[in-house]
Design goal:
Blueprint: E1 2-6, H1 11-19, E2 37-42, H2 48-64, E3 67-73, H3 80-93, E4 97-100, H4 109-117, E5 121-125, E6 136-140, H5 142-156, E7 161-164, H6 172-185, E8 192-193, H7 204-217, E9 223-225, H8 229-241, E10 247-251, H9 258-262, E11 266-271, H10 274-290, E12 307-310, E13 313-315, H11 325-328, E14 336-340
Parallel strand pairs: 2-3, 2-4, 4-5, 5-6, 6-12, 7-8, 7-9, 9-10, 10-11
Antiparallel strand pairs: 1-3, 1-14, 11-13
C-alpha cells in the first residue's frame, strides 16, 4: 500500500517542536541547499514506532526543504516480496534516496544493487538489514534494549523466574534484543530465564495467546519479557485474565501502554524514538547528499554499513508522566495519512 500525507501537524505540536530541541542534542539541524528527493517503504504502520518514523520523516522533510515523493508499507514482517515491488516503484520514480524499514533482515541485496546502479541510494531506518549496499542507517542499539530490561528485572527481583516471548523469527532486531536480555540476565545470580521460541508475528492477540499458554505451564513466573509493545500488551492482558501477579517488560511506547506503566502491569518499557529516527534519516541524507560532516556515524563492522544509534531510555512509573513522548515516539493525534492506489 502507498500513502500520501494529509492533515498537517497540529498547531500545539508544531509550536512544541519549534520551541524544544526536536533532536534532543543528537545533531544540529540544517536545511537542504541542493535538490533532494526521498521515497520510503516501511514494515507497517500499525503502531506508534513506525508511525513515528513516518511522521518524523514527513515533518523533517517539510522543515528541511526535502521532497518526500512516496511512502509505502509492506503490511507485516516477512512481506519481502511486497517491499521489492515498492522499491522497484521508487527506482522508477528516480528518487535520490530510498529509505527502508525492512520487513526482514535478509534477502534485499539484489534489489539494493539495482537501486544503486540506477542512481538511487538506500538508507535503512528503524531496524537493521543485511546488505553492504546500504549507504547508512539510523536505528537503535537492539542488544542494549534487552540488556536494559534484564537489569530492571534483576533490580526488582533477582531470584525471579522470567517467561520469554522472543518474537517473530527472521527479524534481526528480535534476535539481538533476546540475546541482550538473556546474556545480561546471566549476570544476575538467581534469575531464571525460561527459553522461548521465535515464532508467530507481532500483535496483541499473538502476545496474549503465547503468554496465556506459558503462564499456565509456569505458575512460578513473576515476569514476562517481550521484544515489542503489542506482544507486551497482549501478555499483560493474559496476566490480568489469569489474575496473576506478573509484570511485563517490553519496548516501544504507545499511548495505550502509558497507564499500564502507571498501574504496574509493566515494570518498564524502553522508549524507541521513532520520530527522532525519522528526523535523523532526513538530516543525514542532506549531509550525505551535500558532502557535509556526518557526526556520530559508526563504522565498526557490526553492521555491513555505517550507522547512527539513538540511546535507549527506560520508561518507568517514576518518569512516565514527564517523558517527552511528542518528541520521541508518539505523533500528534490529528496527524494522519490517506491511502492512494
Amino acid at each position: 500500500m502507498t500513502f500520501a500525507f494529509v492533515g498537517a501537524l497540529s498547531v500545539n505540536a508544531a509550536h512544541a517542536a519549534d520551541s524544544e530541541d526536536r533532536f534532543q542534542g543528537l545533531i544540529e539541524p540544517i536545511k537542504a541547499e541542493k535538490s533532494l528527493s526521498i521515497g520510503v517503504t516501511l514494515v507497517h504502520l500499525h503502531d506508534d514506532f513506525w508511525k513515528g518514523i513516518a511522521y518524523g520523516i514527513e515533518d523533517e522533510a517539510k522543515r528541511s526543504g526535502v521532497e518526500l515523493v512516496q511512502v509505502s508499507v509492506a503490511g507485516a514482517y516477512g512481506n519481502v516480496r511486497e517491499q521489492f515491488a515498492q522499491l522497484e516503484a521508487l527506482k522508477t520514480l528516480g528518487v535520490d534516496y530510498a529509505v527502508i524499514g525492512a520487513a526482514s533482515f535478509n534477502g534485499y541485496d539484489p534489489i539494493f544493487r539495482q537501486l544503486n546502479a540506477a542512481g538511487t541510494k538506500v538508507l535503512a531506518v528503524g531496524i537493521p538489514v543485511n546488505s553492504p549496499n546500504v549507504t547508512f542507517g539510523v536505528g537503535q542499539d537492539e542488544t542494549s534494549i534487552g540488556q536494559v530490561l534484564a537489569k530492571e528485572v534483576c533490580q526488582k527481583d533477582p531470584n525471579a523466574t522470567v517467561i520469554t516471548i522472543p518474537g517473530p523469527a527472521g527479524a534481526e532486531w528480535t534476535r539481538l534484543r533476546y540475546v541482550g536480555f538473556t546474556e545480561e540476565a546471566k549476570k544476575c545470580n538467581g534469575l531464571k530465564v525460561l527459553d522461548g521460541a521465535f515464532r508467530g508475528n507481532v500483535g496483541l492477540s499473538e502476545g496474549m495467546a503465547q503468554a496465556s499458554d506459558l503462564l499456565l505451564r509456569n505458575p512460578e513466573a513473576k515476569f514476562i519479557y517481550t521484544p515489542e509493545i503489542s506482544l507486551g500488551m497482549g501478555a499483560a492482558q493474559a496476566v490480568r485474565q489469569q489474575k496473576r501477579d506478573v509484570q511485563v517488560v517490553s519496548s516501544s511506547v504507545v499511548r495505550e501502554a502509558i497507564p499500564m506503566v502507571k498501574d504496574g502491569r509493566f515494570l518498564g518499557i524502553v522508549s524507541e524514538p521513532g520520530i527522532i529516527m525519522g528526523r535523523l534519516i532526513v538530516q543525514y541524507a542532506i549531509r550525505e547528499n551535500e558532502g557535509k560532516e556526518m557526526p556520530s556515524l559508526i563504522n565498526d563492522g557490526a553492521l555491513p554499513y555505517p550507522y547512527v544509534l539513538t540511546p535507549p531510555e527506560l520508561i518507568k512509573p517514576d518518569n512516565v508522566d514527564i517523558h517527552p513522548y511528542h518528541i520521541y515516539e508518539i505523533p500528534p493525534a490529528d496527524w494522519s495519512i490517506k491511502a492512494i492506489q
